[in-house]
Amino acid sequence: MYPYYRQLPIQIPGFPQLGGGTGFPPFGPPGSGFGGGPGQSGPPSGPPPTVIPPEQGQGQFGVYAVDPGGIRGCLYRYTYVRLNNGRAFWYYPTFVGRNSVAGWRWRRNQYRWVYFGIDLDRIRSFSCY
Predict the structure, then answer these.
(1) Cystine design at 25: which of 102, 105, 109, 119 (Cβ 3.0–4.6 Å)?
(2) What is the mean pLDDT of the chain?
(3) Is residue 120 helix, strand or coil?
(4) Distance spanning both ends of the chain, measured CA to CA
């Protein structure tokens, strides 16, 4: 999609291989000197919203089907992600591949954003605004 970098698999220590062989993000976080796509060069400058969106899309929030086309609408937007294992967290996606998404995950206990990638089939639902 972006001719200025090659899409090759990456392995982030402590995380499973992304995408099962397709749709990989660049070589590292945007602005790291190892690739990166268009848009913002790093994580958001502050914490995510304090209000957690409801899982059933109501009001200003929308819950989308978990596919690349759906989550692509959340690029560079605060996104609340709920995983199949019951965990949930704020996310700021910056890349969407065929089977995976990469971006910045909010670590509330550490009060910081951490670059993070995950397979789409591990996501139960997501809400962005």
Answers:
(1) 102
(2) 76
(3) helix
(4) 25
Express each pLDDT in 23-57 by its tens digit.
445 545 555 544 444 555 689 999 999 999 988 64
Check if CATH label 2.30.30 holds for domain 57-129: yes
* Residue pair 47/92 in contact by the 8 Å Cβ criterion: no
Token duo for residue 54? 């409801």
Q: How far does Cα 39 stand from its chain's mean position?
A: 14
Question: How much is the pLDDT for 118?
Answer: 96
CA distance 40 to 63: 24
From CA 8, how far away is CA 79, in angstroms rounded? Answer: 26
Q: 92 is written with which tokens? A: 């700021």
Question: What values do phi and psi take at 69, rounded to 5?
Answer: -65, -35
Q: Check: CB of residue 17 under 8 Å from CB of residue 26.
A: no
User: Quick one: residue 10, left, alpha or beta (phi over 0 = left, psi -120 to 50 = alpha)?
Assistant: beta
pLDDT category of residue 19 using cuts at 50, 70 and 90: very low
Beta carbons of 37 and 2 less than 8 angstroms apart:
yes
Indicate the SS3 state at residue 10. Answer: coil
